[in-house]
Design brief:
Layout: E1 2-5, E2 14-17, E3 27-37, H1 41-46, E4 63-70, E5 82-85, E6 88-90, E7 100-102, E8 106-107, H2 110-118, E9 127-131, E10 135-137, H3 146-149, H4 151-164, E11 172-176, H5 181-192, E12 197-202, H6 205-215, E13 219-223, H7 228-239, E14 245-248, H8 256-263, E15 271-274, H9 290-295, E16 299-302, H10 310-320, E17 329-333, H11 338-347, E18 353-357
Parallel strand pairs: 11-12, 11-14, 12-13, 14-15, 15-16, 17-18
Antiparallel strand pairs: 1-2, 3-4, 3-9, 3-18, 4-5, 5-10, 6-7, 7-8
Helix pairs in contact: 4-5, 4-10, 7-8
């Protein structure tokens, strides 16, 4: 089969013919129809992000495709079913604290690396192999719609954060990092889950205006000044009432002060979920005040990705019309032009934009 292979950090992807994956028990092989290219893929492939990847590897975290072959433990899936290939692979031998790897993307520790060394190859290929539980059925779709369905991978990340926050209909949410790709998706997800109001802070006034245009009066925007105390007070004032939940999904380049300004805008007994990259590139830590957390009974929850059942729930939101995949604008490349796709994604990584490879 044809695939794009990363052989060394800092080198271009090599487009070549490689052996097709071989099916094992507890696994599914999927014909990849479309896979998104993350806006920071170039930073991963260059080594700038220092992601733990065992090279050489066929990269690509997740994708949309059709089941090609499955093992004896699959009792509901059938050959030809449309599935989302969930890249969040968990070890099966410790239900309380499973090791996790993002297939063909990153491992967080030694256990995750052991998983990655087996489920190493991803979706920048004509076929990929995933654990049975990671082939998540999405129901019948038109093949052309596979490009739009690639947005599932973007939406799932903030959805996992809001599930961790136990977001309830009618609550007020603040999305820290709302002008980014994942942050703007978080605004859409929060509204789909029933948030009465989403406060969207950011520096990019053009993106803020676009969020307002897309979602109307349930979104209130705040242009950040960079002054932590002033920004926090303006976020509170813009909310017009208590902020129940803060989701921080700022990128690694963002300062801790920006994250702290948003998190400390939450009401007493409120919840804050941390999903972003603050400090990942060696910057300062978040440094939330102990007395503030304790005296205000603040719940701070770290969330990496999403629980195993999140895809099924998210598909329900999409199928119901609460989440509109047509908000996303895909630009498609074939596998021979995977390097062009990576460059395009880096230059066009704004809200509701998607770069997609269609193998």
């Amino acid at each position: 089969m044809k695939a794009a292979v990363l052989k060394a950090f800092g080198s271009p992807l090599s487009i070549e013919t490689v052996p097709a994956p071989v099916l094992g028990t507890g696994e599914v092989i999927v014909d990849v129809v479309a896979t998104r290219v993350l806006s920071y893929a170039n930073e991963v492939f260059s080594g700038e992000r220092k992601y733990a990847l065992d090279l050489p590897v066929i990269p690509g975290p997740g994708g949309i495709g059709r089941v090609r072959a499955l093992g004896p433990d699959a009792t509901h899936l059938a050959v030809g079913d449309w599935v989302f290939c969930d890249p969040t692979v968990r070890s099966r031998d410790d239900v309380l604290a499973p090791d996790i790897t993002l297939q063909a993307w990153s491992a967080r520790d030694a256990g995750g690396m052991k998983l990655q060394q087996y489920f190493r190859h991803g979706s920048f290929a004509e076929q990929m192999r995933v654990p049975t539980e990671n082939a998540k059925p999405i129901g019948p779709i038109d093949e052309k719609a596979a490009l739009q369905w690639c947005a599932t991978g973007t939406l799932l990340v903030p959805y996992g954060g809001f599930l961790a926050a136990h977001l309830q209909p009618g609550e007020t949410v603040l999305v820290s990092g709302a002008t980014g790709n994942f942050g703007s998706a978080a605004v859409a997800v929060a509204l789909a889950m029933g948030a009465s109001l989403v406060v969207a802070p950011g520096r990019n006034e053009k993106v803020l205006a676009d969020l307002k245009r897309r979602f109307g009066d349930r979104v209130r925007t705040v242009t950040l000044s960079g002054n932590e105390r002033d920004d926090r007070e303006r976020m509170k004032k813009t909310a017009g009432g208590p902020i129940d939940c803060v989701l921080d999904i700022l990128p690694p380049s963002a300062p801790a002060t920006a994250a702290r300004a948003a998190i400390m805008a939450v009401r007493p007994y409120g919840r804050a979920v941390l999903m972003g990259g603050v400090g990942m590139l060696g910057g300062g830590g978040l440094d939330l005040p102990y007395p503030w957390i304790m005296r205000n009974c603040i719940a701070v929850h770290g969330a990496w990705m999403y629980p195993p059942d999140a895809t099924v729930r998210l598909v329900g939101l999409i199928r119901s019309g609460l989440l509109d995949l047509n908000q996303f604008e895909p630009t498609s490349f074939d596998l021979d032009h995977a390097n062009d796709a990576v460059a395009h994604a880096a230059a066009n990584g704004g809200p509701f934009k998607m770069t997609v490879i269609a193998p």
